[in-house]
User: Fold this.
Amino acid sequence: MGAGTAGSHRERARARRPSVSAASGATAPAPAGPLVAVVMGSESDRETVAPAGALLDEFGVRWQWRVLSAHRTPDAAAEFARGAERAGIRVIVAAAGGAAHLPGVLAASTALPVIGLPIRGAALGGLDSLLSMVQMSPGVPVAVVSIDGARNAALLAVQILALADPPLRRALVDFRARQAERVLGADARYREGEGGKA
Ligand code: RP5
Assistant:
């Protein structure tokens, strides 16, 4: 996304954040806790998952990183999921590679929506992660995005939050409109024969 198009998002995001009152010098009430938890199975997933955080920042959505593993820290993962709703979390994005059971393990311990983000590994190109996430037992769904699809995982989280947040919904509508404008702008350039000259 170009800097110009991200600008109005950021302005809206700033408007949503608590501010310091210039008149009194008093700090506004402390911000509430994160609404989205972005959980990684390993710190090695961070680079791939980072665009999810950037997208959430763009929309001014409060979020937090967690590093929890379905296999290496199963108790901590389940404990996090059990307490997430009480802690104010509304959507969980869970990224993992290989035998990627993290989103399923979290979904088993919470009624919150869980979005699985399959991470591409060296051996099987991410298909292993995708299939590990998507074939959940009936009764415990996980919404799975594309392999390495961090931005879409975050966008889906924003869409879920926007159901109960009209300003966020308006920001999403604007986002879609700008996205369409960019495509149609490119189409116009190509139709005029300028696209191929780049
Ligand atoms: C998964 O195994 C992680 O989500 C990561 O994608 C993969 C490799 O983890 P490391 O061995 O790099 O910690 O659990």
Notes: The chain has one domain: 32-181. Residues 41-42, 44-45, 69, 96-98, 119 surround 5-O-phosphono-beta-D-ribofuranose (CB under 6 Å). DSSP finds seven helices and five strands in the chain. Residues 1-10, 14-26 have pLDDT under 50 and may be disordered.
